[in-house]
TrEMBL record:
Designated name of the protein: GGDEF domain-containing phosphodiesterase
Organism the protein comes from: Aromatoleum evansii (Azoarcus evansii)
EC number assigned by the record: 3.1.4.52
Keywords carried by this UniProt record: Hydrolase, Signal
Gene Ontology MF terms in the entry: cyclic-guanylate-specific phosphodiesterase activity
Highest rank taxon of the organism: Bacteria
Enzyme's top EC category: hydrolase
Domain EAL: 310-563
Span of the signal peptide: 1-22
Amino acid sequence: MAYSAADAAALRAFALTVPAGALDTAFAASLAHSNVHPPAPADTVLYARLLDRPQWGTHEWLDALTATWLDCQQHGSPPTLPATACACLIEAVRASLRVDGKPPGSADCDIIVAAAKLAQAVHATLATAALARVDQRLAAGEGVDLLTGLPTRTQFVHTLERWMNQAERKPVGLLLLHVTWGAGSPQQLSAQRDRLRRQLSDAMSSALRPVDMLCSIADQEWALIMPELRSTGQVQLAARKLIEICERSPEHGIPHLRGAIHAGTACAPEDGDTAHDLEHAARAALLRAIRADMPVVCFHADMIARMEHELDLERDIARTIAHPPFQVWLQPQIHLATGRCAGAEALLRWQREDGEWVSPPKIIDIACRLGLMPDLSRWILGQTVRILSELDAQGIDIPVALNLVAEDLHDEDLPHLVAQALATWRVPAPNLVLEVTEGALISDRDSAARVIQGLRALGCGVSLDDFGTGFSSFAYMRDLPVSELKIDQLFVRDMLNSSRDHAIVATVQALAHGFGMRVVAEGVEDQSTADELQRMGCDLAQGFLYARAMPASDFTPWVKARNGE
């Protein structure tokens, strides 16, 4: 019962006729009925990928599902997870087709059979991947990784427990070291990555005390057990030494292979009196090191609560990404010469059920980390264009700017998605401005340039945001088809007290006007600054002097009052 082209066609018809929300709701209901344990973040990512209907049946989709399932296993998900998810998918498709209460027709039956074949293919693929991983572990013999020659995670756990259970409770240190492969890793041959892992393992092993034990516990992670410590400071020194050794590796120095190396440390008995608690503490420190991009972080007590809060946020975002709980608010932009509201910036807002406001950078960071940024970007784009349509219906004809992240600028289908959204809501392209930062441009300038050119070809505005904070900003102004420039608030806020900031603002706005760009000053908080910006010839100002960001429902009356309409 192989999945065929006819099955793919039946499921494409299903995707066109049944709203995504109906399938997601039915899947969630089936999952709840199955009485499965509360999903971990990795589980929810698997569910989200499984419900990605446009990708159903593609090799890329199956590969992504396989990688996610292996990650779920690494994080302790039950072996029955794929079977449960596939059964819930079939039931969700069946339930989505029964909404009118009528018996299924022949087309409905074709869709249900196609879904069953698809689920069977998924289950078989994931089961094969799981068995392959078991075979790898069996081939490693007595807990030794054949590639690196180091003890595996099984040996690591047994050895750590043995040292923690010694009658004489001598201090034990634990160091977790994580390598995030470089930007070129997707193009790396597996042999290259294997060679790099071997080199790093050999180099680190040569620098240890005889009593220490280095283990390879994951594809890009090592653990170092340091028993019989004289001082807890030894663990931090060891972490810095191992990172230095790794960074001196010949292949690590190759730009397209170079990655980031981070370490988290903990010491028993202060940070944990069992093997589980000590590893939990070291992992919390490692997570903090990765998120803050710090080489080494030593555990301290509040990290557990912070890590659990981060994981809670991840669960919330992954669970609700199909129907995000976020809002898009608007912050006005004021035309300095007339005082009228002449534009706005769309800003992401999220208030959780417990009243906590989560910052937009945190939301974006988590979505990127979970691989959910494309879904979030499409949702924000749709919401922004819908708001533009509603503003037009209220007689407010102004452009609204929307921030793009680096991942958006690597998606060469973005101009097509923008064109679809504008056509759906009948919004003129010049009313949508896409803001890009140097940080988003720097990783793949050529790809970003093609995307920006595509957006400009549609008629959309493109704004260079946070201008002046990077080293290449002037080159971007020269080389990219940008229509607007935003002077960063870092220079605007203190421009009346700092001759350097004042000179930077004056120079930047003069250059931008020379290139035919509109200039927006961010962070305007007092009238004196606004007056000086107007004297310089700056076009628009944005900041707390005028208004903070507000819901779209409040923005409309605010604009009408401001503009005297």
